Amino acid sequence: MQKINENLFSNFGTIYFHPIASERYDLSCKYIETTSSTAYTFYSFPCEVYIEPTYGIGSILIGKTPDTQNINTFSIHHCMRIKPNVYFCITSLADTFSFSLLTPEDIEPKKINICEPIIPSSITMPFHISQIFDCSYLTQETPCTFSKPPHLYYEILYVCEGCIRISDVNGNNYNLNTHDLVLLTPDEHISRHFSLNTSCSYLTITLDIQLKSNKQILNKIFHCPVEIQSILWQIVQESSSDFYYTQMLMLCHLHEMISDILRLAYEQSEHHSQTDNHSQNFQNSQLKKILSYMNARVTEPLTIEDICHEFFMSRSSLQTLFKINLGCSPKNYLINIKLQKSKELIRQNEHTISEIAYLLGFSSIHYFSRLFKKYFQISPSDYARGLEPASHKNHLDDGSDDYET
Length: 405
Description:
Jelly Rolls
């Protein structure tokens, strides 16, 4: 990917915005056009020279020596003043790129041929999702086993809550717990067997995907960090809509999720050296502490002000932290974990629904029942009677804060 950073580029020259009058400064102007995206030769002038783009998108490969290991690549957006005795080559990024090269009269550059030509890198996708055949969010309240017939497509399985065991006749076994994900390869001859020993909520997506490389993510269990959990919840929300642009968003979320899985696999590889940004590390660590604090106090009358006070944060900073990393507000995350806890308490059958609403800090039984039905498409009383539908939609964040404080 090309870059332009004035601080970094200052090692080799400066940027300016308006073309200079060559005749005023006794400069020779040569018009150059290139269609090559590959660098074969470096040029070096003993004096300052000027590069002024006239058409297209181009890049400059530049360094203080012709050593290809120490070459930097920058996009050419504006005019460039190049320092004396640096080595550079101009390439085209798309079709034709043309520019004016301004140099003092009768000055010829030193030319160095490159042993191994350089092709500037560009952003390409290592995979492509051509079609989503099925996206289902399912809840099973009682233990069960079932089999899925063989097919020719990939399948993503993500456990939202509970655990699932997957096996096949070849002896492959996968044990997935809460927030675990696996991308299963297609097999047209082998059916897979699923065992759910406890109540379980899970997301399953069947899709056609072309992986150019990175096959190491296949048939491997990943425990999803909060960032990927947030993307998966957004996929759940988008999956229930038939609106065309919503379906496009779901496809975008899937691309983002698989990209994050690829990054996670890279970070977990034995060849990877840790280079995370310290600020991002701090944010992730802080968010994990906040989420742990909220989950530990889910049955207490916890407020957003309590969280801000505990972690010495302003309300706006907390809001930004959640929106950037989880895609939802702190209030809606809090109500989501309270409602998930309410399902657990209802299943335990030790409290009435009114008591559960009070235990979780809801202002009234009517408010609790209304939110429960909005999130799970079933009333608390019907859920208690075992009438939960096979699938339902969750509203982790629908753009508004539902929680009343």
